[in-house]
Write a structure and sequence with these properties.
binds magnesium ion; elongated; 3-stranded antiparallel sheet; 524 residues; binds adenosine-5'-diphosphate; binds zinc ion; 11-stranded mixed sheet; alpha+beta
Length: 524
C-alpha cells in the first residue's frame, strides 16, 4: 500500500463522523427512573421500562433534553422547537424492547458547525496548503500563519438511548466468534445518548481527530458527559470515501467502527484511505460496508455490508407525545452555557497577550487551563510579563509530563505557586533554562520548592561578569581557527563558543551574559 501523503496527492478523502456521547453526568436513564452507574453489578439498574416488558410506558428525562439543547447551543446548532421520537426496529438481545427509541428527520439540534484550528504537523495532511496565503480561503478552509481553520458543518444532534451490553463467553478476547454463550447486562440499556452527525466536510484523518478532540473539550466544558473513550461513553464511527482530485461527485463510503481513541480514529482512517486507493487504482470497486479497525493488526476488516435505513422501519413512537420546546426553556438552558474553550482561549490571548497558538493549546485540557489561570492569579502585577513563560511551561513541560505519567496534575507536587517560583527564577536569571528543566523534574520528584532545590543543589547561575570574562578569554585563546572563521563573517560559530564556555562553567553560566561578552571580545 502507498503512504497516506502520496495517496492524498492523487485522491481527495471525504470524511464524516457520527459521534455518540452517553450523558453520564445525569442521575437517571432516558425513559425510566433507573440509576445511571458505570461498573455496577450486572442487571442491578433495570425496571420494566428499560427491560421492555409489555405495557411499560416511557417518560422522557427532562434533564437529558436540557443536556442535548446545551450541546446544540455550544456547537452553533439551531434548536428545533418541535420534534419527536421514533422507533428504530431491530431484533437483537442487547435491546429487550426490540426497538431503539431515537429521533426522526427532525432532531432537537440541526445545522451547526465547529471551526477547527489545524496547526503544526497536523496541517501537513491538507493538500496544497502552501498554495494559499494567510487569510486566503479555499473550499471550507482559511489559511492562517501556522496552519489553517477548517469550517466543519454539523448536520444534527439527536437524542436516543443506549443498548445493553453483551458479554461473549468462551471466545477469544470477548469476541462473539468462537464464543460458547453470551450474557446480557441491561444496566446500560436506556442510557441517554446523543448522536452528533457531521457533514462530509472533513478531508484528512488529522481533521477528524481534531474535530473529535474539540467536541470532547466542549462536552466536558458543558458537563454533559465524562467523555471516556476507554469506557465507551464517547464513541466515534468514521465514514470515509475517496474521489479523484478535481472530481465533484462523492465516492462510495465505508464506515469504520471501534475507533476508541484519538489515535485509533486517525490511524484507522489513514489506513482505510490507503486501502481504498489501492482497490480503486487496481480497477476494483468500494462496497458500502461497515469495517472494524484492528489497531494491533493495523488494518480494517469487513464486519457487514451496510443495511439501508429502511430495514429499521423507522416510525413515530406512539407512547411519547411530540416535543414542543418553549423559548423560555431554551433561554434557561442558554443561560447555563459556561465559558467554552474557544472563548477561554480568546480571553487568555487578550488578557495576557498570548499568541492564538499558545492560548489554544492551553485550553485543550481544563486541568492545564485552570492551572495556568491560577498561576496568573498568583503572579499579580507580574502576570502579563510571566504569561508567556508560564504558558510554555504548561503547554510543553507539564502537558508532556502528565501525558507520559498518566497522572492528574492535582496529584503531583507541582502547585501554581511552585510553577510560578520556577518561572521567576528563570526570568530573573538566577538559573538558566537548562537548570530550569532540572528543577522542574526535582519538584515533580517531591524535592520541595524550586528556590530550596536551587539552593540545595548549588545550582545558581553564574552572572558574575568577571568570572565569565575569564572563561571567554580562555576559550578564545584555545580556538584560534574558530576565531578566524568568525572574523571572516561566519557569525554562526558563536554557538560553538557559547557551548565551550557553558561546558567550562558546568552549565551554570548565564547564557545571555556569555553571548554578550563573547560578541564584545570577538569584535576586539
Ligand atoms: P447513511 O445513510 O449510510 O447512514 P448518512 O448520509 O446518514 O449515511 O451519513 C452518515 C455519515 O457519513 C455522515 O457523517 C456523513 O457526513 C458521512 N457521509 C455521507 N456520505 C459520505 C461519503 N460519500 N463519503 C464520506 N462520508 C460520507
Ligand atoms: Zn429502567
Ligand atoms: Mg445515517
Amino acid at each position: 500500500m502507498r503512504k497516506l501523503e502520496e495517496v492524498l496527492e492523487d485522491w481527495e478523502a471525504v470524511i464524516g463522523l457520527e459521534i455518540h456521547a452517553e450523558l453520564t453526568t445525569l442521575e437517571t436513564k432516558m425513559f425510566c427512573g433507573c440509576k445511571l452507574e458505570f461498573g455496577a453489578a450486572p442487571n442491578t439498574h433495570t425496571c420494566p421500562v428499560c427491560l421492555g416488558l409489555p405495557g411499560a410506558l416511557p417518560v422522557p428525562n427532562k434533564a437529558a433534553i436540557e443536556s442535548i439543547v446545551l450541546a446544540g447551543l455550544a456547537t452553533n446548532c439551531d434548536i428545533e422547537k418541535h420534534s419527536m421520537f421514533y422507533r428504530k426496529n431491530y431484533m437483537y438481545p442487547d435491546m429487550a424492547k426490540n426497538f431503539q427509541t431515537t429521533q426522526g428527520p427532525v432532531a432537537f439540534c440541526m445545522r451547526g458547525h465547529l471551526d477547527l484550528d489545524v496547526d503544526g504537523p497536523a496541517a501537513r495532511e491538507r493538500y496544497r496548503l502552501d498554495a494559499l496565503e494567510p487569510g486566503e480561503t479555499r473550499d471550507n478552509i482559511t489559511r492562517t500563519e501556522d496552519g489553517y481553520v477548517a469550517h466543519v458543518g454539523i448536520t444534527r444532534i439527536h437524542m436516543e438511548e443506549d443498548a445493553g451490553k453483551m458479554v461473549h463467553i468462551g471466545g477469544g478476547e470477548g469476541r462473539i466468534a468462537g464464543a460458547t454463550h453470551s450474557l446480557v447486562d441491561y444496566n446500560r440499556a436506556g442510557t441517554p445518548l446523543i448522536e452528533l452527525v457531521t457533514e462530509p466536510d472533513l478531508r484528512t484523518p488529522e481533521e477528524a481527530r481534531l474535530f473529535m478532540q474539540k467536541l470532547r473539550q466542549i462536552y466536558l466544558a458543558i458537563g454533559i458527559s465524562d467523555c471516556s473513550m476507554e469506557e465507551g461513553s464517547l464513541r466515534c464511527d468514521g465514514n470515509v470515501s475517496l474521489r479523484r482530485r478535481g472530481a465533484t461527485e462523492f465516492g462510495t463510503k465505508t464506515e469504520l467502527k471501534n475507533m476508541n481513541s484519538f489515535k485509533n480514529l486517525h490511524d484507522g482512517l489513514a489506513y482505510e484511505i490507503c486501502r481504498q486507493a489501492e482497490v480503486l487504482e487496481e480497477g476494483g470497486v468500494i462496497y458500502q460496508e461497515t469495517r472494524h479497525w484492528d489497531p494491533s493488526a493495523k488494518r480494517t476488516i469487513v464486519m457487514r455490508v451496510k443495511e439501508t435505513a429502511d430495514d429499521y422501519r423507522l416510525f413515530p413512537e406512539p407512547d411519547l407525545a411530540p416535543y414542543d420546546l418553549t423559548d423560555e426553556f431554551i433561554d434557561r438552558v442558554r443561560a447555563k452555557l459556561p465559558e467554552l474553550p474557544d472563548q477561554k482561549a480568546a480571553r487568555f490571548a487578550d488578557a495576557f497577550g498570548l499568541s492564538a497558538y499558545d492560548a489554544r493549546h492551553l485550553v485543550e485540557h481544563r486541568e492545564t487551563a485552570n492551572f495556568f489561570e491560577a498561576c496568573m492569579e498568583a503572579a499579580g502585577v507580574d502576570a502579563p510579563k510571566l504569561a508567556k513563560p508560564v504558558a510554555n511551561l504548561t503547554i510543553n513541560d507539564i502537558a508532556a509530563y502528565l501525558n507520559a505519567e498518566g497522572v492528574a496534575l492535582a496529584d503531583t507536587p507541582l502547585t501554581p505557586a511552585r510553577a510560578l517560583e520556577l518561572v521567576r527564577l528563570q526570568a530573573d536569571e538566577t538559573i538558566s533554562s537548562k537548570q530550569g528543566k532540572e528543577v522542574f523534574a526535582a519538584v515533580l520528584a517531591g524535592e520541595g520548592d524550586p528556590a530550596a532545590i536551587v539552593e540545595a543543589r548549588g545550582m545558581k547561575q553564574v552572572s558574575d561578569t568577571g568570572a565569565i570574562e575569564a572563561v571567554v578569554d580562555e576559550v578564545i585563546a584555545a580556538n584560534p581557527d574558530e576565531v578566524a572563521r568568525y572574523k571572516d563573517g561566519n557569525t554562526k560559530v558563536i554557538g560553538f563558543f557559547v557551548g565551550q564556555c557553558m561546558k567550562k562553567m558546568r552549565g551554570q553560566g548565564n547564557p545571555k551574559l556569555i553571548n554578550q561578552v563573547l560578541a564584545q571580545k570577538l569584535a576586539e
